[in-house]
Write a structure and sequence with these properties.
The mean pLDDT is 96. The protein contains 2 helices and 6 strands; from the N terminus they run E-E-E-H-E-H-E-E. Strands 1-2-3-6-4-5 form a 6-stranded mixed beta sheet, with helices on one face. It is globular, with a radius of gyration of 13 Å. Strand 4, helix 2 and strand 5 form a beta-alpha-beta unit. It has 127 residues and is an alpha+beta fold. The chain has a single domain, classed as RutC-like (60s Ribosomal Protein L30, Chain: A).
Length: 127
C-alpha cells in the first residue's frame, strides 16, 4: 500500500498526481519543476532552475522523514542537453553541501516540460 506525500515546502502538483508516494520501502517523488513554493516564481537561468528543482525534491524527501542521503536514483529532464555541464555544477554542489553520496542518475533531453521549464528532476529514495 502506498501513501501520498504532500508538503507546502515544494510546489503543489499541477495535475492529477501527488508530490510523492511512500511504498514503505521506497519514496518516489514526482518530477519537481523549478518553482518556488512560496512565491510561485520560476527563475529563467538553468542553474537557478536546477537548484530550485533539487530543493523541491529535498522538501518532498524530508516530508517523508528522510534525508538527501537516502536518495538512490535521480532522473533529470533537461530542455537542452547543452546545459548538462551547468546542471552538473549545481548538482555536485547540492550533494556536497548535504554531505550525501551521489545517487545513480539519468539525464535526458526532452522536447518540452510543463510551464516551459528548462529542467525537471525526480528521485527515488530508500526508506
Amino acid at each position: 500500500m502506498t501513501t501520498a506525500i504532500n508538503t507546502t515546502y515544494a510546489p503543489a502538483a499541477i495535475g492529477p498526481y501527488v508530490q510523492g508516494v511512500n511504498t514503505g520501502s521506497f519514496i518516489m517523488t514526482s518530477g519537481q519543476l523549478p518553482i518556488d513554493p512560496e512565491s510561485g516564481y520560476m527563475p529563467e537561468d538553468v542553474m537557478l532552475q536546477a537548484r530550485q528543482s533539487l530543493e523541491n525534491v529535498k522538501a518532498v524527501i524530508e516530508a517523508a522523514g528522510l534525508k538527501v542521503s537516502n536518495i538512490c536514483k535521480m532522473t533529470v529532464f533537461v530542455k537542452d542537453l547543452n546545459d548538462f555541464a551547468l546542471v552538473n555544477k549545481v548538482y555536485q554542489n547540492f550533494f556536497d553541501t548535504n554531505e550525501a553520496p551521489y545517487p545513480a542518475r539519468s539525464c535526458v533531453e526532452v522536447a518540452r516540460l510543463p510551464k516551459d521549464a528548462l529542467i525537471e528532476i525526480e528521485a527515488i529514495a530508500i526508506a
